[in-house]
Amino acid sequence: MMSRDAFNSYCGGLKATTYVVQWGNADVWKVGGKVFAIGGWNEGRDAYTFKASDIAYEVLQDQPGIRPAPYLASRGMKWLQVYDDPGLSNVELEAHLLASYDMVVAKLTRKLRAELGL
């Protein structure tokens, strides 16, 4: 599974992102003030949470090492959490993090996207 340092490095490399520590020492990544990825939240072990497309949510939610994200999915949101092996490879996780980022960017106002250079 991806290390937390690698997760933070990848998310930090995406354009116009911001980072905060919230919710019990979770690494929270945002774009335009909206969350797109969270590192942490698994009883002290590394876990990575991201927004998922409808198709990705349906396909991945029952895969070993992946589950609907605690708290978020229970509120009807399509978020997944990679919490254990085998989960996703680093390349696959990066692709889903990018997709999450892109979904959040797409929901930002045109004005905010322009301000952020997106």
Task: Give a written overview of the molecule.
- With 118 residues, this protein is of the alpha+beta class.
- The protein has a single domain (4-113), classed as Alpha-Beta Complex (Aspartate Aminotransferase, domain 1).
- It contains 4 helices and 6 strands, in the order αββββαββαα.
- It is globular, with a radius of gyration of 13 Å.
- The protein starts with a helix and ends with a helix.
- The mean pLDDT is 93.
List the strand order in the largest sheet: 1-2-3-4-6-5
Largest sheet: 6 strands, antiparallel
Low-confidence stretches: none
CATH architecture: Alpha-Beta Complex
Q: What share of the residues lie within helices?
A: 25-40%
Summarize the structure.
The protein is of the alpha+beta class and 118 residues long.
Question: Which SSEs are present, and which pair or pack?
Answer:
Layout: H1 4-12, E1 17-22, E2 26-31, E3 34-39, E4 48-51, H2 54-60, E5 66-68, E6 79-82, H3 90-107, H4 110-116
Antiparallel strand pairs: 1-2, 2-3, 3-4, 4-6, 5-6
Q: Main traits of this protein?
A:
single chain, 118 residues, alpha+beta, Aspartate Aminotransferase, domain 1, six-stranded antiparallel β-sheet, 35% helix
